[in-house]
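Q: My labmate handed me this sequence with no annotations at all. I'd like to see what the chain might look like in three dimensions before we decide whether it's worth expressing. Could you predict it?
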Amino acid sequence: MLRVAEQAFRSDTGRQRTANEDSYFARAPMFAVADGMGGAQAGEVASRLAAEAFEPVERGGEPPESFLREIAVGANERIHSLAERDQSRTGMGTTLTAALVAEDEVSLAHVGDSRAYLLRDGELKLLTSDHSLVEELRRQGRLTDEQAEDHPQRSIITRALGPEPEVDVDTMTVQARPGDVFLLCSDGLTTMISDDRIAAALRDSTDLSDAVARLVREANDAGGRDNITVGAFRLEAAGTPAASDPGATLVGPTAAEAGLGTAAAGTQSAPPRRSQPRSRDVAERPARRRRWKTVAKALLALALVAAVAAGAWYGIRQVYFLGTDEGGRLALYRGLPYELPFDVELYSEVYSVPVQVSSLPEERRDGATDHSLRSRDDAVDLLSDLEAAAASPEPAPRRAGERDRQGDSRQRDRDRGNRDQGAG
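A: Here is what I predict for the chain of 424 residues:
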């Protein structure tokens, strides 16, 4: 039997964001990190709902993986339902990576690109697999590890809680040992510092609080482009004298609404609450679970196919590219620049601008027709830049080594005129 001997969690806004859309839950033996997304503070709401989903429930006789999956699915339903009722929160979602210590095992549930790591005997191992566009391309062999590391679409995820009515949740169980350290984090950490630096911080720090603070500091020193949430817990044999119970910690950008406090550089604990249903949705879970078990075997294959298709479609809708419309004008498209059999298009036109591709400087036309995948902001910026280039009377600056085609043409005309005068 194992138990949690030490734990530390910290969430930081980062250097380049004005709001923190991350949330986390920490009450041994259960921990979770959520990274929200969506405008009008919708990301903050989504991540808080995911963290709060762990608060009112206790595990019965079901396996740990099933228990974590049920919580994640319930959180997905609540986030999606709220987004359906409030147009300002349409499309909001959140990642979720959760861990549950049970006897001598640690079970994980995972959706999105937040991560779980295990440090054992000084070696760090990544336990989860990112649900992101870049990771999918890397697994398919279309990107190398080096290309994936700095890819501009690295933050585009293909699976999250909230955007769709159903979600596919990855689960796994790790056979644990005394001394194991598990780390949960949002991508604000992993996009800023390498796994080697994460391992060094965990190995070299005096305790987990020091390690977590060091990781947040290093991520900020590297640029702090995103919110940074890091949590770690260490296991020991159950016979070891126990430390004092740290109680419950539920921290997010709107944690005050849940009756818990936050600190600028740390966490605040609150007394454990009674584990009782707080809503009709929670109270009805046992009945839904019994009904589900009667039809699960028949619907499992169909549900898996639907979930994979939904995840793929969600990922497609997060990328953009430039092209031309039927009239030859510059246009912004959403999706992937491919067509499936039976004329099924994986893209849709967002809007076009009154600029013919043929009117662009020749050296800029490739950028308008190469169908490179981009984020929406990148694609809109490029479209505006190309529109300005078409309207400008000045030729675009030449790259090193390029010839001035118009200058060459003018010189040929002058030479031809000189020859004609000589002949006369």
